[in-house]
Design brief:
Elongation Factor Tu (Ef-tu), domain 3; 6-stranded antiparallel barrel; OB fold (Dihydrolipoamide Acetyltransferase, E2P); 4-stranded antiparallel beta sheet; alpha+beta; 418 residues; rod-shaped; 25 strands
Length: 418
């Protein structure tokens, strides 16, 4: 084979090899592009007003509610109760207590009342008999005195001796009259004292009967207003309050204790815990966006109403934390809202107009500077940006187009792992 043909074959072989390597490199490049498109999640930048917020957690509470208290009756035991969360009307029975012991007390006290009334009536009748007897005895004594006076006048005419005897008889009759008068007065005083004592016993028995009847009448508690009934947890016997359970039939309660409430749903507000570092950024009447965990599709507008002037110490976690309590009034109520629902509120402390915002996890640091990775035709390139404002989930930046698409992962680190 001549040298010319060898050179031609060499260059043809080299050309084929270069074409094969080039094709493989192009395929690998396209494969990497596809893999990048598939494996790297991206997000579209947003353009518009950026809300700078303070976020906190809390629960729904009613600013106004009607409290439910147990009656002032000892030894209360629940016999029946309406389900917690039920919609009740004013005057509906919501709880009944066991009245069997009170019924037994009532029967005993009514028997005591009848006995006391009978004793009083008997003494009144006996007093009348005694008074009539005393009246008769007093009249006889008065007659004896008058008769003695007449006899003394007659005998004084006959002789001195008979006159003296008559005067002595008159004196004796007058003394008997005084004794009888004293006896009558004593009987009257004794009758009044005994009657007062029996009347007092009768009145006391009557009062006991009325008190027992009043207690029995209080054994059924009726709803003081219309609304959704909520009962408190029973902390009796619980250890640290962690194992508290709802009240149930058979539980014993104290008299005069708060058993539950009927909240006014028109006054629902979210009570949130504000960190000390954020207290200086919030103020009354700021706009608030409320979100409820049980209703994630809702975004409820609200207004920041009140902020506690002093920080509260939270002892439910260790170490204890200090925070302020803030209340947001929900301006547009939803009928599904209930007190006790957990949720969060975003307090709008500032607005950045015409801002470009991206998810917070799309912002990275490269050489100490904030960067984003722009998606450009299947490839990603880092671009330095300037942070204008931050939120827990979003960041307002400048330095990219409002229509840019950014990666949600650190592309350089991902590529380095490959």
């Amino acid at each position: 084979m001549s040298a010319g043909r060898k050179r031609v074959r060499f260059w043809l072989t080299l050309l084929v090899a270069l074409l094969v390597v080039g094709g493989a490199a192009a395929g690998l490049y396209r494969l990497r592009k596809v893999q990048a498109d598939v494996s790297f999640p991206v997000a579209q930048a947003k353009h518009g007003d950026f809300l700078v917020i303070v976020r906190c957690r809390g629960e729904l509470k009613a600013a106004r509610s009607v409290e439910i208290y147990t009656p002032m009756v000892p030894n209360l035991r629940i016999a029946w109760m309406a389900p917690s969360g039920e919609n009740v009307q004013q005057g509906d029975p919501i709880i009944r207590f066991d009245s069997s012991s009170s019924q037994q007390d009532l029967a005993k006290k009514e028997a005591q009342l009848k006995s006391a009334s009978a004793a009083l009536d008997q003494w009144v009748a006996q007093g009348r008999i005694t008074a009539e007897q005393d009246k008769s005895d007093l009249a006889d004594a008065q007659y004896a005195v008058e008769n003695a006076k007449i006899q003394a006048s007659i005998k004084e005419i006959k002789s001195k001796i008979d006159g003296e005897e008559a005067r002595i008889d008159l004196g004796i009759a007058e003394q008997k009259l005084k004794v009888e008068q004293a006896t009558v007065d004593l009987h009257a005083v004794a009758d009044r004292s005994k009657m007062a004592s029996l009347t007092r016993l009768r009145d006391q028995a009557q009062s006991d009967v009325e008190i027992t009847k009043s207690r029995i009448a209080q054994m059924e508690v009726k709803s003081p207003s219309s609304g959704f009934l909520t009962f408190n947890l029973n902390y009796q016997g619980s250890i640290g309050g962690n194992d508290a359970k709802p009240y149930k039939v058979g539980d014993t309660v104290y008299s005069g204790m708060n058993l539950g409430e009927i909240p006014d749903l028109a006054t629902l507000q979210l009570s949130g815990s504000i960190e000390e570092t954020d207290r200086g950024r919030i103020a009354q009447n700021q706009d608030v966006i409320v979100r409820i965990d049980a209703l994630p599709e809702l975004s409820l507008p609200a207004k920041l109403d009140t902020i506690s002037p002093l920080a509260e110490v939270t002892m439910t976690e260790w170490p204890p934390t200090r925070s302020f309590r803030a209340y947001a009034n929900i301006t547009k109520k939803d009928p599904r809202l209930r007190p006790g629902m957990n949720g969060g509120m975003d307090i709008v402390v500032n607005r950045v107009p015409n801002a470009i915002s991206i998810p917070a996890k799309a912002l990275f640091t490269r050489n100490g500077k904030p960067v984003v990775y722009l998606a450009d035709g299947g490839s990603y390139r880092p671009v330095e940006v300037k942070v204008e404002a931050r939120n827990p989930d979003e960041v307002a930046i400048s330095g990219i187009s409002p229509s840019a698409t950014v990666a949600l992962v650190d592309v350089d680190k991902k590529e380095a792992k490959k």
